[in-house]
Amino acid sequence: MGSSSRQGWRSVFKDVTQKWDVMTVEEQEKELSLLEEWTERVLEEWSDMHEACMTLRERQQQSSVLEKYPPYVSKGTALYDLEMFPEAAMQFDRELKMQPHMHHPLLHLYAIFANLYGGQRERCKEHCVYVLTTSVDRLVRYFTYMALGTLYMQEGEVEEALTSYEHASKLTFHPDVMYNLGMAYFLQHQYALAIPCFMEVIKDGEEDVDALYFLGCALCESGYVEEGCAKWLEAIQLCPPEKVLLTIGAKLEWYGFHQAAVHCFEQLLQSRQLRHLAKHGIAWNLALQDEREKAIHMLKELIAVPQIREDVRLSIEFLAHCWNDGNLRQLAASIERG
Questions:
Q1: How many domains are contained in the chain?
Q2: How many C-beta atoms surround the C-beta of residue 21 within 10 A?
Q3: Any domain includes 83
Q4: Mean pLDDT on 128-147
Q5: What is the dihedral of CA 284, 318, 302, 266, to 10 degrees?
Q6: Where does the sequence pass through the membrane (predicted)?
Q7: pLDDT (tens digit per residue) in 184-211
Q8: Largest Cα–Cα distance of the chain, in whole Å?
Q9: Is residue 146 part of a domain?
Q10: 78: domain range?
């Protein structure tokens, strides 16, 4: 991939910046609107993906601890397995009262996670404090700190979450705690600390799409752009969920790896929900590689798609400006008129 294609959005920003002072207010607003729209799209996809990943991580952590102890089966666990978490949390409280002096090691953990998933945050904290005050079991304390860290992350208290995850990491080594530590550092913009955490998750050949994605992000934010994009390409090979593919494609585009972005978006062309967005992404990256004929052909095909018609118009309008193409300006104007 040549150096000119790697410039990508950076060159677009540079072009806009150089012309900024001679633009009218209306032209400036149009340029800003387009750039902000693409930025927001990346951020929205990242937010959705992160929320989904964190939910799966929480469930994975809680279920894995069940293998370490004799099974605990009760009415509460039945409700829990049915994902009726508020009801399960109340039932676990009853079961705790019925066994005031001899609790199964998993009972408090069940209560903690039922309250966590059920949105009963204060009650979850109360259970966590009780366990950390009374239990000396390393694994029980580990998962209690993990739950507490997740709770603080949900509340946006990243510093408190970091403290909990650091306590957990001292009790036992597990990829989950390294991943969560990495995420906490990442959200604090401490990318140099996040990188070794994510590297630890994948160092033994662990096929972890989430860790690879955020490792790529942390590397890019630290200035190691080619290394970061290489991690995203590794993640693509693991057949990630569609929204993850879309996000990686947008990230590759942002950093100027347009051919890699095209490859990523091409994998979404069979998606019922995302195929039009993927086709738009392919067209835009072809345009950024100056493959004008292919790009315009694809954009024209997308004009008929109501969901992204306005996005397509903005793309055509922006390219008309960059290429000083009167025909594209007319096309964008005709789309706006409807």
A1: 1
A2: 7
A3: yes
A4: 93
A5: 10
A6: none
A7: 999 999 999 999 999 999 986 678 899 9
A8: 82
A9: yes
A10: 69-172
CA distances for 195 relative to 189, 198, 227, 286, 326, angstroms: 11, 5, 12, 32, 47
Mean pLDDT of the chain: 86
List the structure tokens of 57. Answer: 């991580």
- Position 166 in a domain: yes
Give a yes or no: residue 134 inside a domain.
yes
Task: Reply yes or no on whether the pLDDT at 265 is more than 70.
Answer: yes
pTM of the model: 0.73
Q: What is the pLDDT of residue 193?
A: 96
